[in-house]
Amino acid sequence: MEKKIRVLVAKVGLDGHDRGAKVLARFLRDSGFEVIYTGLHRTPQEVAMAAVDEDVDVVGISLHSGAHLALVPKVINYIREYGGNPDEMLILVGGVIPTDDIVELKKMGVDEVFIPGTPISEIVEFIKTKLPEKRKKNES
Amino acid sequence: MTRIDEKRREWEEKCLKPWLQKAGQREERFETLSGVEVKTVYDPLDIEHLDFVKDIGYPGEYPFTRGVYPNMYRGRLWTMRQFSGFGTAEDTNRRWKMLLEEGETGLSTAFDFPTLMGVDSDDPLADGEVGKVGVAIDTLKDFEILFDGIPLDQVSTSFTINPPAGIILAMYVAIAEKQRVPKEKIRGTIQNDMLKEFHAQNTLVLPPEPSLKIIVDIFEWGVENVPKFNLISISGYHIREAGSTAVQELAFTIADGMAYVEAAIERGIDIDRLAPQLSFFFNSHNDFFEEIAKFRAARRMWAKIMRDEYGAKDPRSWWLKFHTQTAGCSLTAQQPLNNVVRTTIQAMAAVLGGTQSLHTNSFDEAWALPSEEAVRVALRTQQIIAYESGIPNVVDPLAGSYYVEWLTDKMEKLAWKYIEDIRKMGDGSMLRGVLRGIENGFFVREISDAAARYQREIEEGKRIVVGVNKFTIEEELRIPILKVDPEVQRRQIERLKKVKAERDNEAVREALEWLRSAAENDENVMPPIMEAVRSYATIGEIMGVLKEVYGTYKKPIII
Amino acid sequence: MKVEELVEGLLSGNRRALARAITYVENEYPESKEIMKRIFTNTGKAHIVGLTGFPGVGKSTLVSKLTEEFRKRGKKVGIIAIDPGSPFTGGALLGDRLRLDGMDSRKPLWTDPGVFFRSMSSRGRAGGLAAKTGDVVRLLDAFGFDIILVETVGAGQSEVDIIEVADTSVVVMMPETGDEIQVNKAGILEIGDIYVVNKADLGGAEKVERWLRYMLSLDEESVQMLSQMTHADEARVASGEFFERRKGWCPPVIKTVADKGEGIAELADAIERHFKYMEETGLIEKRRKERVKRELFEIVMNDVIKLVKEKTNYRDVIAKLARNEIDPYTAADMIVEEVLKNAKER
Ligand code: B12
Ligand SMILES: Nc1nc2c(ncn2[C@@H]2O[C@H](COP(=O)(O)OP(=O)(O)OP(=O)(O)O)[C@@H](O)[C@H]2O)c(=O)[nH]1
Ligand SMILES: [Mg+2]
User: What is this structure's pTM?
Assistant: First the structure.
């Protein structure tokens, strides 16, 4: 049996913009992923623990609060702290993220950032091609 | 009418049909943005069932389809009110003064997330969020700085805040006291609409029932103390931005409005005293005529509801006054200057729909909070409509358009259907119906489904978004982006510490105890909140007491 | 991770190892057999409680409140929540995690080290469970949870599979759909060790409660007559299997208002009482025997089929069968013979 790709869609911090995250979760499900949506107002610890316990392949963080540079690295660090390995997962960020910050986020270990207007089909494609690529690279 | 009917048939047969056979059409079915099917052309037969005097009439008169004032913008233009705030109180004060200088005519406050959610800047949950998407407010001290040099007897201020709305109102009153402006004179609006938070905006702290109780406390206190202040802004804006259709926006907003009125009546508040202090807030999206129809339908519905259902006597109580914001969710990150055009169309719809005040979004909407340059263009857009287009010179100029009247009526009918369903859920009570709909996920499900439909249409290319799924280009971002100084958090926490060190902590403790006992004994919480604010209690401390008494709320997941 | 690492980690309380082991087992990775072999002797300590019932009756809310309650009683709680997965796209939304919030929503229960929550997709499978639920439960058991709560898919069909993994089956109902139709649904009356009438705040709960008590007091024959059963369940009821499970235990009916926490302590008491009862009467052993028997036969069956595929010319036999040249019984005899002969050779 082909392993199903498990994706965590997370809202972190006080941000209440859930339209994008929910639409994304729905479409990922319809594209054959197993999607775990955390709901709103999660702390970085909670998101990281969900990622590790649920042993997801993709950690997707949706942010519209401008707090991405503070919160995303925290999530990644806590995943490590709880024994997870971010190098085995795809770490994706989406939402309202200015161009300069995209560069910063990638330096922090984010694999890709998706801004408003990105077709979800593009996100699906990205996961399907980049997840095996990243895993292969990590193994060697 | 029979002549018209004959003519219509003849035209369809002899003129339209052969044309269609030859030239065809772009689509098989044409719809509004909300999915209402529209015909090729409208004629008097489509509005035959409407009575001009009863259903349309004149502005300033029941049912107010054409506007709440007799001469509308010929008297006074709408208030140009740009939603704005970021960083510390100093930063926002500076931006406000710039906007006033540039011709803005009212203030509108955007708060940061910690403030919106009722936690202090030094709370671990606030880390990274202080001052990011609005101004950081912890205590009255911040408000003193925010309103420095802004005389409250000359300006009206709107506050987009919900769970801590009562606290913010108390702070505004306290500033008025300090400026020696009688509180009876201050003008403005607190959003204070928790129902739509549960449906759409998600600044959620307390459960629905206590949230509603506090709102009614604010009504009760407000009619006595701040009679010129709008005590609530019953908002469809957020419902629409979360993905709803225009019809759902209209229906759910009116339903919420009815729920508030019923809650106030249950408390024994005189509806004719409260009604003038109710205001509304709608979205203006891309479908020009649909939006205009929605605004006109809203006014007509509310007039009927207030007069006929709730028995308000004073014609002023039948008015639906509203603020409009153009649709942020229609604006794109790609080719940002296109957003100026979208916003212009939406702003025109708002003005043609008779709005009382207007916020126009900036072209950098999908990138960050507005830069100075972007917000200036947004404000200028309003000013151009106001002073150059001639639109405001005639009241409700689209009345009598077969299409607009038909669509107004259609919107109203579709909205009523929803309202009746909600009433049924509450066994005849709109208040219970709305609460039940929150509990069983009705509203969230309706809105989410609509949002998914919208997205699907974009993904499939059925809905064209210029610059996003058609007419795209390779581009690099070349617009300035507003950056909030990362030092804001540290500075704000320092100020908070200082205030806490200098205030009379005994007075704070007493005020908070008073608040606790008021909440526990089902008394009005506004007097103790007023006292707590005056003694420089923090928003987090005040909300903290309410959370302890009422518990907190976690939204069920409905995708 | 290597199998040794996983097993060692899991047995020494490493959550990450547990999480990964579940993935291996759920997806039937080649390593999963080895993992199950090595942890098996560490299982059999936990009390496995299944919750089943129609969609939206409040299973997740009950799980959340029960978790809180059992934590208060000093027990470590593992939770498996199964959500429906589409048989067509294979996709699933596993969202129940959220409802697991304790009183202080700033600290959701699932970040409590004494609680482990895992969602699984049914992946289109009928019966309310995911294919590997039983093994995943064992992993949690071996990890050291005292109580393991399993929430089945609420699909409204016959979710009777829960009795195959649970020691105690809790059937959840609610007033609004609480008419005869719901109660008569196949298997519902037979599988429950405990019945919950949730949403007692909505009114009409007494009616369901009365009806339930009445039905539960009837003997097995009358129930059979009253119930409308699917073929599969009919056979099982006829075999007396369901009622055998329950002999001597009269299933309590408990009213709850899950979202307000009312009735939760009573429910937890009943669950504990049922466990004690099973221990005292030896029922637990009997049930577990039934379970391992079923599992063993399933494994054996799979192995045999594998042998058939490896060691016989079953394709030829099938071809003959399809042409009606031989009958299925003769065909089976042929294959069994061939397997026995060839398997011995090795
Ligand atoms: C809709 C909206 C709202 C709605 C939210 C409704 C809801 N329940 O979601 C309402 C009106 C309630 C709202 C309120 C506020 N908003 Co608002 N809002 C927007 C708006 C206009 C659109 C967002 C949206 O939903 N788009 C549609 C969805 C489908 O697209 P999306 O979320 O971008 O998702 C796409 C991609 O980004 C990506 N994606 C998103 N998440 C993820 C995650 C992963 C893992 C991946 C792979 C991809 C991905 O995929 C999606 C498909 O393409 C944006 C501006 C804009 N145009 O983007 C402002 C915006 C986000 N809001 C903003 C602000 C400030 C607020 C408020 C804080 C205002 C205030 N001070 O009161 C409040 C806060 C409310 C709250 N509790 O959070 C600012 C944020 C500024 C910043 N980050 O610097 C923005 C950018 C507007 C602005 N320029 O000022 N808002
Ligand atoms: N009025 C009332 N509502 C309840 C009660 N218990 C749960 N609910 C609500 O019922 C809804 C469904 O509850 P869940 O716990 O998700 O039900 P479920 O059985 O797990 O649902 P599925 O997993 O989708 O089958 C939620 O909105 C709960 O808040 C109760 O005792 N009374
Ligand atoms: Mg559930």
Answer: 0.93
